[in-house]
Amino acid sequence: MKAVITGGAGFIGSHLSDHLIAQGHEVTVLDDLSTGSLSNLSQLKDRPGFRFVQGDILDRELVDELVAEADTVFHLAAAVGVYNIVDNPLRSLRINLHGTENVVEAAVRHRVPYMVASTSEVYGKNDADGLKEDDDRIYGSPVKSRWSYAAAKGLDELVAYIHGTESGVPCVITRFFNVVGPRQTGRYGMVVPRFVDQALSSDPITVYGTGAQRRCFGSVYDVVPALTRLMDTPEAYNRAVNLGGREEVSIKGLADRIVELTGSSSAITYVDYEQAYGEGYEDMQRRYPDTSLAARLIGYEPTRDLNDIIGSLVRHRRSARSVPEPV
Ligand code: UDP
């Protein structure tokens, strides 16, 4: 199989590239390197069947050309990370809306099965106990730029779904819930790599708000194999599928756990939302996935608990630090 992975130099995309190459497939990564990095792909550079193309998903011709040669498209390119969204709300809206439209239109034009990455953010402020795929979305006000990501991804799902049903081209929509693992950067938000880096540098751990807000972190090693399995499962076509972990934790609890697991001397500090993100920020208090649909469709069963997830990131960061900085 020849796969195109948009955003393949990013965190999840690079793990998917590894996975597909290991299975003997050909992979073309399209990435503009705005938040992704070539170092995430250095292990694949000389592997037969792997190709990297630097480019923008807003470039219709380029997207069309690459998709035309493919058997499957995994669309993971997006402007991600809370800081990125809050700092560049219009740019991230354009990429997340029009970029997805380009990729999906090209896939449908060439009748190439496609997966569109969505997010648990589409549930907005809904804090149901175990968010199900058909639960209501509760977005905040349109004058809070925080919601632009959720709103754009919500529309992306509709773009994917409507094109998929009208054309009959297989389409899968995946909703990622706080996926974590090696290569993830804390530069644009993403609390686990931020706390791990702070702990390893003995810097204060910055808990935003009270730290009582809760999340459920999933491992990239559980989520990535599920993507190819969903693409092979006709019952998964034209629907959104939750993918995430199982162990829920408060953000204060996460900070404590990371301090304990790293043996760090870092203190925990509390930072106001306004200081962290600027004015008008709204946080979600709770976000816990119900992954029973993925379990039914493909036998999805998260196998890594929170300690495993933190441990894999800590090992990755420690080994990266032992390599001398280039001069
Ligand atoms: N958070 C935090 N300190 C940080 C970064 C994030 O306390 O340095 C909090 C953030 O406010 C949110 C949670 O951690 O409550 C998860 O944030 P992230 O950006 O990782 O994901 P999301 O908000 O999209 O779930």
From TrEMBL:
| SUPFAM superfamilies according to UniProt | NAD(P)-binding Rossmann-fold domains (SSF51735)
Give the cofactors, semicolon-separated.
NAD(+)
Enzyme Commission number(s) of this protein: 5.1.3.2
Q: The organism sits in which domain of life?
A: Bacteria
InterPro entries this protein is in?
Answer: Epimerase_deHydtase, NAD(P)-bd_dom_sf, UXS-like
Top enzyme category: isomerase
- GO MF: UDP-glucose 4-epimerase activity
User: What are the residue boundaries of the NAD-dependent epimerase/dehydratase domain, all occurrences included?
Assistant: 4-244
Keyword annotations from UniProtKB, A to Z: Decarboxylase, Isomerase, Lyase, NAD
Record flagged with keyword Lipoprotein: no
> Is Lyase one of the keywords UniProt gives this record?
yes
The protein's name: UDP-glucose 4-epimerase
